[in-house]
Task: structure prediction
Amino acid sequence: MYGEAVKTASRLVTAARAGGANALLETDGFKILEAAGIRCPKRLFASGVAEADLLDPATLGGAQVVVKVVAPSIAHKSEVGGVAMVPNDRQSVVAAIERMARSFAGQDVAGYSISEFIPYDPSPGGEWLLGLRWTDEFGPVVTVGPGGVATEFLAAALQTGRDVAIFPPRRTSREQMLAGLKRLALTPLATGGIRRQPARTTVERLADVVSKFSRLAAVCRPDGITELEINPLVPSKGELVALDVLVAIGTRPLEERPPRPFSKLRHLLTPSTIAIAGVSASMNPGHVILNNIVREGFDRGSLFVVKPGITQFEGCQAVPTIRSLPRPVDLLILSVSAAQVPDLLIDVVEHRKAESVIVIPAGLEEKSGTEGLVRQMHETLCEARATDWKGPVVNGGNCLGIQSRPGHYDTMFIPAHKLGVAAGPVSPVALVAQSGAFAVSRTTRLTGIHPKYSITVGNQMDLTVGDYLRYLEGDPDLKVFGIYVEGFRPLDGRATMEIVGRITASGRTVVLYRGGRTREGARATVSHTGSVAGDYTVTRQLARAEGAIVAETLDDFTDLVRMFTLLESKAVFGRRIGALSNAGYECVAIADNLGDLELPAFTEGTEARLTAILERARLSTVVDVHNPLDVTPILNDEGYEMAVRRILEDDNVDAGVIGCVPATPALNTLAAGGAHAEDLLRDDSIASRLLRLKDEIAKPWIAVVDAGGLYDPFAQRLQEGGIPTFRTADRAMRLLNIFVEERFNHTVRAQMERWVDEFSQPGDRQVLGF
Result:
């Protein structure tokens, strides 16, 4: 059946394309669905009134039939009067066709279909959208969601994640499909999961249809079927029936580029020799890059400046041209104008002078009128790929380049005094960003975190986000991957998601932010599928399915990368949190924003110890011991530390939230100076005490400092000392939910894998999904 459906679709697409059509007739769409095993209404076809007068609609059965205009240019027929439900007799059918013929006179009408009437309940859960769409970034994707004429309205009104389900056909198992369908808000309405709501179908039956439909992805290409949509798919008499089908076809060839020589990323990220073109005596970007590379400790003897007329520049050997480099370099940095890049790249290829290139300048692929330059660069690279050498790998253009701690270089042309020099141990983090400014902004905000790599890919004219992740995936030192992307190169989104899946399966964390979210809104689309499952929605669902954390805001991205990095070594064994604050409102805010977390009762031993702490502070008559614990603004630094320790050591607690509203005389929370004796740097301050606890307690915990600028030094000291610190409890709880869920799932999976390794028989791993 699968092979027959593909053959049918290919034959119909070829015939339509030969006739210059950009869509199939609905009647042809039904033929494809029926070949795939999907139930469609029985139907007749008439090219016009005369043929209709010769048909016998009674053969379709039922008291009514549905008459539709069949025209490739009329996608949504019901909206323009192209659908009529009439009595099942020849006279009524002919009359309906006569009316439509007058209404659509002059349009490319191929004829009219007369279909059996399918009875169904149109209330929510009774109409489904099932779409297959080609996306350049991910290839074919399948979308399931609310159908009917209110598709867009319902999808927008439903909670994100429960509005539509999106599946990549080649990476979706039956179990994943069932789980995705069960998450939809529409599913219990259709399957009887709502009180007194009769079941109209089952989720298993729906999954059967989606599986059959997904197999048509074999003909979903930019030069084949670009969109295939059933709307609505309805439950009727125990079956799921496709009442309407839309099929769009394309003629655009699939963009294919020769594979990049993957092994050369080693030369790019950890070069032993570097050359820079575009350095001037003034402090231009090239000169700043040179200074930054020297500052990072790169050997001047292995650093060359391409600059005619001199033999030395600031202790580095200078050469007039790329071809005059004394030997091939691992990395060439082009900090020149866009117009100069193609010729320099030709020089590199002709003389095999660099294994990798970073193209800094903008004004190439993102600027109109530069198509010739871009084409020349791509042709040069393609020619090099065909040789035994394979040519260089190229990062950029329109980028700030790369900061590589192992490579001892930094091409981001930001002076040290504007960005700050990384001081401290390398963090187990890799940032891969399409925007250089984004990477710089994150670097300045992630104080205390020093990524092993910060990579800005720019236009991805050669190397892509997926290429870098594929390489970095093999680095066991990397535990957290932060990705900012505005768009993927063709099919690189699919490659990226597959790599993300492998990274997260290994217990590591991927935080993704997708920019350019409104671009799909400006793009006209003929289908409902394109409007409810645009680029961002597809990215979000596919990334989450692969275990990535999708940040909804830029602040979320920064805080999530920070939290997962600082708490990377902390295991999570459950969702039970222990919480403390010196403000009642903050205790309430913590409880109000629990999400999937739990507030357990403390053990008897912990309760007794906390009671003793409160008694010593003369607070036992003011507050009771419960979770969250309100210690009031009266408790001092020492008592605070003791209470926090007791809560975090409690056997009923898996993670902690420690709130500290610092505007109380009882706590040392101010920087030294002014008309007070406080100094938050003292060993006995609450900040110093909490930082010591951070190293002594194995459980993950976070801090909340809800106060204004006066207390920024306090919050900053906690943050830079390695404690994830938030400025409001609601935000802290929302992001802690994400952390606990992700790390708890990893802990459970790791424990199960250890159990499987220890107790299972050969072959059990595959059966259990490991």
